Amino acid sequence: MENKKTICIYCSSSNYLPEKYYKFAQELGTSIGTNGYNMVYGGTTVGMMGVIADNALKTGAEVTGVIPERIASFGLENHKLAKIIITKDMRERKATMEKYADIFVAAPGGFGTFEEIFEIIVAKQLGYHDKPIIFFNFDGYYNNLFSMFKTIYDNNFAKEETKSLYCIVNTIDEMYKYINSYVPKEFVFKY
User: What's the CATH architecture for 6-179?
Assistant: First the structure.
């Protein structure tokens, strides 16, 4: 993927969301190409995933899709992509996306999005990578999750320092400001 940095997008694959999420997906995808980034994502044509990928492509991003055999067998593979990687299962898919990514962004999504971003946070916590991780809190989507995070911190299920592993943004400008100013630092895991 040239020398451009690659943003990994985790988000919804649903075609049944309120329209505001697809409009946001269009803006986010457009911003990836116009800001000089490439993209890796789950490789389908559906939901916010498909909208973000299509708009990133239109604005010059090279987009790599990573899709498990089972999902590809449903005919959901995005054939517009420069590169599509078919994996044997979801675990291989996540590992492949992680390998290609320089930055991780969780836009609004369901259980799959939560599972993907949490795995990336834990991997950073344990020192397996030092890449930026972003929760894109569009329209307050993640507010309830962040309330749960507060409960986790308040009850010492995680150290306050864990907050440094990720960033919460509400706008596209905030996202790129964080990405452009990001400096990796060692996270010291404490028991």
Answer: 3-Layer(aba) Sandwich (3.40)
